[in-house]
Amino acid sequence: MDRKQLERWLAEEEGGHDAAADAAFARLFTAMPRVEATPAFVEQAVTAAWRWRARRRRLIAFGWAVASVLVAAGVLGLYLASPRLAPVLIKALAYVSGHAVPWLVAYTTVAMNWWLTLAHVGGVVASALVTPARAAALVGVELFGILAFFALQRIAGAGRFGDAQV
Amino acid sequence: MSVGHTASDAELASDALAGSEAAYRELVTRYATPAVNFIFRFVRDRALAEDLAQEGFLRVYQRLNTFDPGRKFSSWFFQVLRNITIDYLRVHRLPTASLDELAEAGNQGAAVDRDSASPEQLAGQRELATAMSAALSRIRPEYREVVVLRYQEGLTQPEIAEILGLPSGTVKTYLHRARKELAGILAEQGWAPGSETLSSEVP
Fold first, then answer.
1. Contact B179 A44 (CB under 8 A)
2. Are B78 and B146 a contacting pair, CB within 8 Å?
3. pLDDT in tens, A7-18
């Protein structure tokens, strides 16, 4: 990085030669020293990653072990309890379905009636309110809203580094 | 396994994902200085830049399985670093820097070529590097990042556009404006052709 390179670049910028200025600046800036990582950096980064990897592998192994034990215990429990459990389960299932199904059918019928009534009222209100002009105005407002949203997103995207301003 | 100086970044990433420590070490070795240098330009603190870069490498390792080998590794890597830096700067607002601090920050990044220069040339180079580094600290952060990525890391405009999530044309405009601003700042400080600068006064 020397004075001549700098002067060449500044002269090209002054002359408005964009491509030449870009090339001159690239030559100048490439020679600009970088902030080097300390010698211990690589070792620390590798150690941190491998420590995380080992922890993760231990966690996964532990998860598998716990899941296997739980499944095995569940299967064993079911096997041991099955002679007594099976009749109880079948009776409970028959009782629940015998009581629940008629209620379910009744409530579904009521809900369907309400739904049909609401749909009918909604249809009447909509046919009274919606005209082509109003529909066009609504679509226009929505389009404007979408455009405004995208514009705001672009502005927010450009300002993400705002806090880093010197 | 394709660990070595000739292996591509994508190959190293793939080997690291398969459990090769040597491949990951090579990847870190390649990108340690670019990472620290990139972050330093925003946080102006070497130790903090190293800490954030360490976090960046760990995050990259944790997400290696999401890396698409069809993409350029450096683009993906700098995108991760950029997100970490932005997250940090959102929470920890940097204080406004004084000119002295900027010059000091510039000095940290202003090592010079000691092999082939006289003491006067060395002093001049150091002063110019300091002035450029301080000027870089004064331009808008989005300009700064495109300058560092383009001219120091050698990324192309489309690659930078991918990292920043901007159209390629916007990156070109940012580069143009960044150069103009840097030229203006340096000219203001007396580095313009024909003007007397401090560098000529160095004994």
1. no
2. no
3. 888 888 888 888
The H-assigned helical ranges of chain A are 3-15, 18-30, 41-129, 132-158
Q: Is B125 within 8 Å of A1 when comparing Cβ atoms? A: yes
- Domain region containing A103: 36-158
pLDDT of residue A58: 95
Q: How far is Cα B31 from Cα B61, in angstroms, rounded to an integer?
A: 13
Interface residue A39 vs chain B (CB under 8 A): no
H-state helical runs in B63-189: 73-91, 99-108, 119-138, 141-147, 157-164, 168-188
* pLDDT tens-digit readout, A64-84: 999 999 999 999 988 887 788
Residue B199 counted as domain residue: no
pTM: 0.65
Examine residue B86 and state whether it is found in any structural domain, yes or no.
Answer: yes
B16 lies in a domain?
yes
